[in-house]
User: Fold these one by one.
Assistant:
Number 1:
Amino acid sequence: MSDAYATTDRLVSADSNSYDRGLDTAIALSVVGFTLGLITLVNLVPPGASGSALTTALGTLLAVVVGAVGITGLASYTNVVPVTSQRVRGIGLGLVVSTLALTALAAVLPVTMATLLGTVLLAEALAITAAGVSSRLELVDTEPNMSAGLLSGGALGAVGLAMGAAIGGALTSAGSLLWLIGAVVAGVGLFLLAILPREDLGSTLPTAIVVGALGLTIVTGTIGVGWQWNPQTLSGGFTGGAVIPVFLLVGTLLSAWSAAKCRAGFGARGREYGAFLVINLNAFLMVAVMATIVVFVTVKGVGYAFHGLSVGALTALVLLTPALLAAVQFARTPAGTNDWNSGARQLFRVLPLAAVGALAATVASVLVTGSPLRYSYAYTVQVNRQGQALDTAFAVTPDTTIGTLLLIAPALLLAVTFFRSFGSLRKVGTQSERAGSIRQAVPTAVLALVVLTGFFLVFGPAPFGLPLGSTLGFAAVVAGSVAAGGLAVYPLVGVLTSDGPTLADSAQSEAPLFTLGVFGGLGLLLAALLLQPVAGINPLVGPVNLVPAIALGAAVASLALATLTTVAKRSSEETITRRLLTEETRLGLVGTAGFTALVGLHVAVTGTSFNVLGVSIANEGSLSWPMVMQAYIPLGAEPGGIMPAIIGTVWLVIGATLFAVPLGVGAAVFLTEYAEQGRFTALVEIATNALWSTPSIVFGLFGAAFLIPRLGGDESLLAGMLVLGFMLLPLVLITSRESIKAVPDEYRDASAALGVTQWETIKSVVLPAAMPGVITGVILGVGRIAGETAPLILVLGSTLNATAAVDVIGGFRFVSGPPFIANDALLTASASLPTQVWAVIAAGVSGSPQMGWATAFILLMVVLTFYAVGITARTYFRRKLNYE
Amino acid sequence: MTEDIPTTEGEAVSSGDRVDGSTLAVVTIATTLVATILVFLFRPALALPMLLAFVFVTAVGWVTYQAEVARLLTLVATVLTVLTVAFITFFLFASALPAFLERGLGLLLIPEQGGNARWFFWLESVLPSDSTYWNPLSGAYSLIPMIWATVVVTIIAGAVAGPLGLFGALFIAEVASDRLRELIKPGVEILAGIPSIVYGFIGFQVLNGFIQTNFLDDGASFLIAGIVVGVMALPTVVSVGEDALSSVPQSMGDGSVAMGATEWQTMKSISIPAAFSGISAAVILGLGRAIGETMAVAAIMASGTQFADPLFDIFDANATLTSLIATQYGSASESTVDVLFVAGVMLFVIVAGMSIVSQYIERRMQRKLKGQQ
């Protein structure tokens, strides 16, 4: 509606465009009404609410709307996020106005929610009628077509048909066919009213009639809050509590559509605006449904899932280190680009770093003050079918014990990360003779230790009655670990005693010592460490455990190296020297993380804890998460957890992946690279697609009837793995084929032109290029089967309250007869996350719903993590491919 | 014969004749594998040693003739995959055959009410009828109630997933900006990833109570099961439909826009008609998902085997084909298991058929759009 066409005798002019603003408000009112309808439908606010309950609810909504619109308006005003569209501005303003009006109405008049909702519909009907009539009277400048079109007519006719049937059915007695007449009359009437007049009337009047009728029914109380209709022919019925919100949803959707058409001036543009509004609302609804499901399960399950979670402060700090590294990396990334200049972006880059830092400081304060950090809350458990509230807390305790796994995993992760960023120090610095001979001796020493380990592994620590383990083994461990300690300190000594003019120069010239010290030391110490358990020894020097003490010393020495090179780097000007020193710093950090991991590994393999400076490293750490780390405790005061189910799911996923991935990827390679593309490949493709969409329960049926009798005759973990593998197979095949097909033929041609054989081409060109796609497909597929339930309840059974987890690794044993290797754990039933949820459902009233919610929450998190990782990986690889 | 394989292998390598050696390696590996499969089928106890023999022979072959062995292994993977598919199909049909032969049309008994067969789309005049239609003790097994329950749930699910899915696909393919699309597409995928048992648990714990208060029902109902299954089938419809809409060549839409048409007119008159077969394939595939859905349905509706009365009572509830298998298998007698296999075969045939039809439609559309027809 251009201002140029506006004249003074029209409602719309350059100064006053009340037509536009009014319709924007009408659209906004529809949106508010739709939201209120949803809120009433899920009974957040009952339709009978009135007085303070109603004003509170509307006040909350008002606060939300004012906040959202306000912050957007502010951003638009300050030009940070410019909103230029008049329609968006109008709707934003309309949202505030209509919510304000509704709140005021509820506060002033003694109305119920239902009446208010009816009023909304009536107001909508009036607004639409006014818009249509003013357009027909040419008061405003619109471009209507001759007719609203068959599509709109059909839609309105269908609505009329339904309404006519309902009204007819309500007015006439049961059994008579009068409702049919009512339906036909209303349907045909609305259809004709829609298509016969000019579009501005045709697309407003019928809508207004429908919306107005719905509104009147509610306002007059024909269908009120207490209304019920229980037809004889149905086993259920309808209540006002369900019907009124549904009326609202239908009515507001119709009126929003119609008002949008009016707002854009009818015609092609009007229809487009109307259609887009509906499409956008639908998309919003889909996202809302998804978010609701996830949030709902989280809210229901999170309290129980995290009951009694407590973690030692030092453990928390160790776990924070990788996060800290990631945050630093994130903050560093854009350095040097123009983006860095933008203040807001810089802030967002640094924000994670600051957050991790603040968190770490909070946790560290627990260590310093010694008083734990507690967040207390209550959750409910089911005791004798009665809900019982239990107080619990999420706590960070000043415990300084660190579990080995929680030490090794982050340390190893850091070591690998630093090693990946480390380039090379080859041919840097001066090669001294002594270092050269040591460099040659180290592999020999490692080999000797490994041979010794093998020897003890085969013959035991005391072969042929000779106490070789405690003598020879002891000497070897001591010698090896002391030598490793010496190696780790060697570069430090070398740099400090070097006669270079500056620290930077000496660090550069002694570069060969760095690789020797870090890698040699790590290798030697690892070999010595692994010798200990097989030789049955654990050398002590006084009260101190030798190997971990040396590992710790080496870690400190490596850290000193990293610090030294960093200091040297600051004083150096030359670019090449600075680069080399950075490499050396990274190497020092590899050493620090690696040696720290060895400390943990020592405790893990020998089983004796290691204490230093009040810090204890032990196999039993200070992380306690009962839900995940405990099994069900019968008759316990604390409810225990679902560890057996988690372990079961982990093994199921591992087994299924081991079965499906080699087969699927192999078949994909053959079908794409070797086989001739024709009937056969097309047939296999159709068959795999059909298998992919086959109902999962059918796989379960197959597994129960075919696999179980052949695998010991009882429900078993192995059968579950195989059945899930059958389900995973088609997905792996399909995605692998797609990603292998997506590798450009140029790659293959270029490789063939170099004279490379077909297999070598596949191995070194096609597969690496296709690998990201394959891995993504596998991750997404695994996410899908991890939540699969139907086949598992047939082949794995469903156990409520499992008290023991399957021990697959410990279950292997050798037997004399065929099949020589047996694993009873694989042939017994196990709990798993999805079947655990099913067990809660199947147990009916005796199942604990809280436990079910918590299990469902953990299952959802596991599956969503797989999906999130898979989707992120795919986006990452796709971007990388496009930018290359 | 497995014992002497390693030695023949060694001799072949030492003779130095690559072509003969590779043939021999391939032949021995293939033989061992076939033997392993046969042993697994007929003497499962000996399968593991045979498998180890196969692994050993393959490892030796991998070191000496990598290219040939790799090719063979990929072929083996293909054959095994095809065999798995074929074997599952064969086994299902073979297991269902006894019940089918024994009972024939008795599996489709129309329930009687007051001495007369209930109206069931005029089929009651063709099919047999009885007043006991599900009673394992007396051997009466009629799948008609479950088939009907599946149909009702699928219709409701289709009514939810069809229109919403079409609008969603339109939004992602045509309306959304690039940035929004990158957010919403993964969102839809994640929606597909929510395990069905979680939907089932929500339905069991929350929605059934909602139905009780708002629709005066005893809880379990086709309505809720259908809506939940519809939401579950929605992502399939959206993503396949979106693929179909995106595969309409850009030039077709551009031509329309160049003529002065609005985007909605272009969508309505160009994109949707061009992609119509693809969209219908999406809906078919979504309905296939809905038919095969088990856990949500089993959790929401009880495992009753009564027949919906009246037919279109959406507040009634009974087991569908899938939930019948899931809930009855554990405690089933032998003859019941045979009947469950008939239900499984029905599901398999229907859903696989729908998948094949939708693939055919999609392929034809692709060909047409590429102008090869």
Number 2:
Amino acid sequence: MERPFALAVKCYGGFVLISDRPPGGVERTRLWPISTEAAAISHGLLPTAHEVGQAVISNHGATEPIDTIFVRASDQLSQHCAQHAVNQPVGVIFAGFDADRKQRLLGWYWNGNTFTTQDFSMGTFMQGVGNPIAQYLIAKLYSFDLSEELTSRLALYALVQSRTLLPYPIDEFAEIGWLRSSVGLELISEAYIRERLDLVQKKSEELRLRCQEFLAKEQP
Amino acid sequence: MTLALALRGADGLVLATDSRVTGGAQRSADVSQKFLQVNRDLGVMTYGLAVPGYRGMTRLVNEANSATQRRLAYFSEISQLAENIFRDEFQKWIGELTDEERGSVQSQAVGFILGGYDSFETSQFRVLHWTSPVFQREERNDVLAAQWHISGFLIKLLYYPEISVAQLKRLAVFCLTETSAAESTVGGPIQLATVTLAEGFKRIYDQEIQHLLIKNQNYHTHLRANLRELMLLSGL
């Protein structure tokens, strides 16, 4: 069961991490608190993405910055995949603050045989797989001063539209985490996510009506 | 890659592509001819691999309008000829490659869209679609091909079945502009044509496209403002 949707977005003062999942229960989470300065999100085939994520969260200091964690975690992940003969693609996106408190986005990816790492720190977001819908919507709506709340709405809208349009397996519910420096990853409640998903779906319909009305009124 | 659109309105079709070609020594150039007129009522478009795509289109136009044989008029015979030519040209092109190059050719690497008015057999506007390597004909209401994702989102927002061809031209230009702003493999001058009962296949030239681009500035502003208002700010 492939689960490619994983999105980490910088926001004002922190990050929003989001992955899709089936509604009800988080026994196979893909969001991972690591320290007060870092968190991760795994993507790829389940249960491998979940198991590999579990391998990430051990042996890290409670307040370690992302740059220290990433080097060690990449090694651990690669060793885990080699030892357990993981022959499927799986990846982990790390979000967090480095020793200078700069926001960093780093990626580790196992292609079933060997690993690569990526540094997306100059960008505003990082995804599990290329997702043109999320990329477009973030480019259209994102600004650095968005709060966690607004960034979560944007990410949920990207999730809903991606699920509607893209030929990827994407579940209808989501897990969301907010990462702040010195605090760590706060996992957002199911009730909050459900309320925001309902809002996004209602507003999507309103947007469609407004746009069509506008188009119809405009002279060709 | 490319973005190729065949959209159906209440009174006809709109066919549109960009003109960017990527790869090769030049890496990227905005000179690719991606659609041609076949006859009064019919146009053909291609996307993906430029060489078999262009060869397939030009051969179809030449053979459907042969000076030495009967000129083809029926949609069914033109579409059958098209299918045979597209498959044949792709196989010929594959035959010219080295084993290593052949191994790197992806499935659905080249596609063709035939769109127009079938005036003799069904009296309908029709859109047919083929992709490599099988070239199995697929009849569709509309086709969004290659880098279609952003257009898929925009069409879902903006399209309605009763839309006129005049509005649909603006929508096609809007899709191409929005995609080219986000996707580097789509860009360059927009190639646009309409097919209507009154005028048949009609190429839309640069001056009108420029006019549509300017008029569309309202769309861009409206979409961004409403997205921000509804998705980010409402309910705060």
Number 3:
Amino acid sequence: MTFGDWLAAISQSTAPAGKSFGPHWAYVILSLMIPGALGLIMASILKAVEKIFGIKLGRDDI
Amino acid sequence: MTITLPIASHWQKILNPALARLTGPVHGWFYTIQANGDLAVSLVTLILLGFALGLLGGLFGGASGFLMAPALNIVGNIPYNVAVGTELSLLVGTATVANLRHRGLGSVDYKLGLLLFLGGGLGLGIGVQLLKFLTYAGEISLWSQKISLVQLIMSLIFGGLLAWIGRQAYREARRVPGVESFSAGPAPPPISAVFRLQELTLPPRVSLPRSGVEAVSLWLILGVGAVSGLLTGLLGVKSSFILLPALVYLLGIPMFISLGTNLFEYLILALFGALIHSMEGNVELILMIILLVTAIPGSQCGV
């Protein structure tokens, strides 16, 4: 099972058909952790690029 | 190459019951609805879209947030509730980057940020419930075509907002510096109304020593937070365009501290929003990852 398949599996509703969406606990946690972790990694990469190339990148986000 | 979006597929089947009667796949320009109702979107399109939205964000300072949900809906046929929830989860990432890159400037009033979050959390909760209500509101007939109510209302809201932003940008572009009579810019802020609100003495009043504010009504801070939180919860956009002017003009916070506090409050609000939207099943994880890793480099190219 690939990471994408696993993400797809935990994104399925645990509630019976016809009921409101029932989230898997891993889905809720990853909705917060993945963007936080990726943000951390991206910020580190941007900082490294600034150091290596001696440039000043923008500080705005989207 | 396409990727199947499980959350968007789930909601699409609820919003469009007619999909259950599909006899074969339906092809859009950038997406395919499989015979079983699953939605598959072109990966290249999503990568280009994320990069383009980041680029616009870098060029215009965050205004691309208003484009993301409608763009995902139009390009990928992604339901609005999923587009908004995914955007809020993505904003956790962009807010993390922004906070880390502004770290060390010492410009955050944490007390103010937490108070704003109290109001913002409430507003955000209302916004998410409004979106949920619209999502389950069913379909209406429009010119002999059935359309889900959430699709109609959200399209109208985003359409109106984008038209307003476009009008403001056009008026700004037409403005000639130094020529007062030719200025077609926005009307000056209603100073009297601002002063009236600033003088609001409704208790309890709180002091904000870090921001140099002696006493301000707590209700004013909560109200400002609630309005920005409502917009964030309902539309998934960063509401700095309301929060920053309100902090500076209404609460009298120095611009330097307003910027840092806005970023701090925005991170915890985005976390809270992502939590609530994920509990409702509105966050498409795969889509969020693709958009995040493409939008951030895009935003750096647009600076």
Number 4:
Amino acid sequence: MKTLRNRHWISGAMIGLTYIAAVLATLPLLLILWHLVKKGASSVSVAFFTNMPHPVGEAGGGMANAIVGTLILVGIACAIGLPIGIGAGIYLAEKRTTPIAQTVRFLSDVLNGLPSIVMGIFAWELLVRPAGHFSALAGGAALGAMMIPLVTRTSEEMLRVVPVSLREAALALGYPRWRTSISIVLRTALAGIATGALVAIARIAGETAPLLFTAFGNQFWSTSLRQPIAALPLQIFAYAISAYDEWHAQAWAGALVLITMVLVISIAARFVTRSKFGAAVD
Amino acid sequence: MPHLAVPRVPVAQRKESAEPEKPSIITKDLTAYFGERAAIRDVSMTIPQQAVTAIIGPSGCGKSTLLRCLNRMHETVPNARVDGDVEILGTSIYGEGTNATAVRRHVGMVFQRPTPFPTMSIKANVAAGLRVDSKQRLANQAEDEIVEEALHRAGLWEEVKDRLNESATAISGGQQQRVCIARALATRPRILLLDEPTASLDPLSTQKVEELVYHLRETMTVVIVTHNMQQAARVSDRTAFLLAGELIEFAPTNQLFTAPKDPRTEAYITGRFG
């Protein structure tokens, strides 16, 4: 009996430790959010979203162009990164162990580990130098290239989890292989793939280095794909290293807005792709 | 019964099925390999139309492999191949230029474990076989009628008629398996292959499925693999006994179970091994 009581105590202690670990894991995120709110909330106003940056000394400046710019850049990146990433994920899930598949998987992992500034240089060489000017397209392409390995890996994992029996059931009904992959397997894995896509979007939305010499930033309003475009991370960076308190306050507000945007995108897209019937695979 | 759209059957098959005496499936020296290993060897049998044929044998004897050769599912496994031939209603399904997908559309299959498509409703699941060819999509009402008929035949209509748009995974295992059966029946195949369909079911669902199989013989050819000898005796007209990949005996069910010709068959059905 005494041993049993000891074991209960130890079990309780271990469960307590796991709770503490969970709290410690979420603590940095919560601290950052709290800090951002504390520092930036006061500068966030309607004007922040609708106004252009104002010169120092003039009140009421905003980051409207940067917010729209980030949305455009993320949009371009998704247009490039999602189809290629999901397509590559489908390919890898179908042809699991062939030499080509193994090579693709390996190269994808290498690409994943490349420093983001190298991605920026790559996009600069391909899209900025020949064109002779910075552009939103180049910035979006750099971000899209960063998305590809992330989306590929998570798509492949989510597709692999779909049981072979489902695929066989579709084949036995007379579905051709490609339709089995898309209508049945992909659909079953969709929620998981969407999560992977969102993780990738959250990752690239805040990237600064690849945009430094591709999108370059823009003090003026521009939504053209062939012109330099403002972006929240770039604007935050420019303001943060400046000498003016006013701009520092704006930088805090920008950081708060950026995190909120990522949060909203995550929730909204999760809601949209949530299958009416739940995505549980038995 | 309203006139329902029936999937187009190739001319050769239509001609053969007009004579009820013609065999439904003929296998000729069928050998199936996984890599270098032959799971079944030189199996030749003639499966009659509009009857239930059972395939029995100990675990690992190749029953499922034989069944999967009949609708060209065996070759979906990597490194698997088939030698020999299978004729369905007079047409060779392994012949030059035959399309595996087309074969599978005319032969229904139900697997051992229920496999409803989890992101689809019950109605969409049953209709899945009808939606295979997106160019020939049926009108909603026609589709609904076929779904209802298939669920009636599977003995599931009363239980799910109010829940057709709910997820197919929200029902019990026995009901899910009957949804899979309805899904296979919805395309009105001439041949239905059942791979141990009641292996993971409770006794009540098992009974319902067996009743269904027994009645299906009026309209189609059924081949059922089962590890349960009593089930084979209950539902089938002819039974085939497989051992280590070879067809040992193939006879009318009554005869096989009361007066088997081969001593190995007798040893198996009396429980001396298995």
